[in-house]
Every structure is written in C-alpha cells, then in structure tokens.
Write a structure and sequence with these properties.
about 130 residues; Glycerol uptake facilitator protein; globular; transmembrane; mainly alpha; For/NO2_transpt_CS
C-alpha cells in the first residue's frame, strides 16, 4: 500500500479541521462553494454533451464527462469542501486516531449543510 498519499489525505483532513476551528462560517462557505462548482460543472457537461448527442456522435458521453471534470478541478483549486470527499478524508483520519468521531460527525454535518446551501443558492441564481 502507498503510505505517502494516505499521509497527505490525513494532512488535508487536519487542515480542514483547523479551518473549521478558526472560523466555522468559512468552512460552511467553502462547502457551499463546492456545490456551486458542481452545479456549474453539471450544466456545462449537459450542454456540451447535448451538442454532440443531437448530432448522434459517439463522443457525446465522453465529452460530457470531460467537461464535468472541470468542476472537480475548480473544487480542488478553489478550496471547496464537497461532502463526498470529506467523508473519505475524515473517516480515514479518524480510523488512524488523529480525529475523534464526534469531530467527524460535526464536520460532515456542516459540510452537507454547506453543500445544500450552495446548491440552493446556485439554483436560485440560475
């Protein structure tokens, strides 16, 4: 098993814990931003795939998947906190006893709430 990447996962989870401890609102806003990026990525992927689908092109689905990947890149570079990724980071770190399970529950709950807020705001904007 590769140890170095898993240690980076642990370091990232602990960084997210420190962001939460410094300012919980900032943590929630990062989660909201992540779901807005996903919403943007879905719209772009559907539009891009739709152009190819209407022409009965065999690359319709790969093009949609390719453009959706841009949303994941936006989250990574934009510093968003998506619930699905946080689940892995925090669970792994808690299993290694670097976080408590109560911290995991709190952070995952706030991440989920932030994702819902971001999705609602993005839907309202659209």
């Amino acid at each position: 098993m590769e140890v170095k990447p898993l240690l980076e996962v642990e370091k990232l989870a602990l960084k997210k814990v420190s962001i939460f401890q410094e300012n919980p609102i900032h943590y929630i806003l990062r989660a909201a931003l992540a779901s807005m990026f996903i919403g943007f990525g879905v719209i772009v992927a559907f539009k891009t795939g739709g152009y190819f689908y209407n022409e009965h092109s065999p690359v319709a689905y790969p093009m949609a998947a390719f453009t959706f990947g841009a949303a994941i890149i936006l989250i990574a570079y934009g510093g968003g906190d998506l619930f699905t990724g946080d689940t892995f980071y925090f669970s792994f770190t808690a299993l290694r006893k670097k976080m408590t399970w109560s911290q995991v529950g709190t952070l995952l709950t706030l991440s989920y709430i932030g994702n819902i807020i971001g999705a609602a705001v993005f839907a309202f904007i659209i």
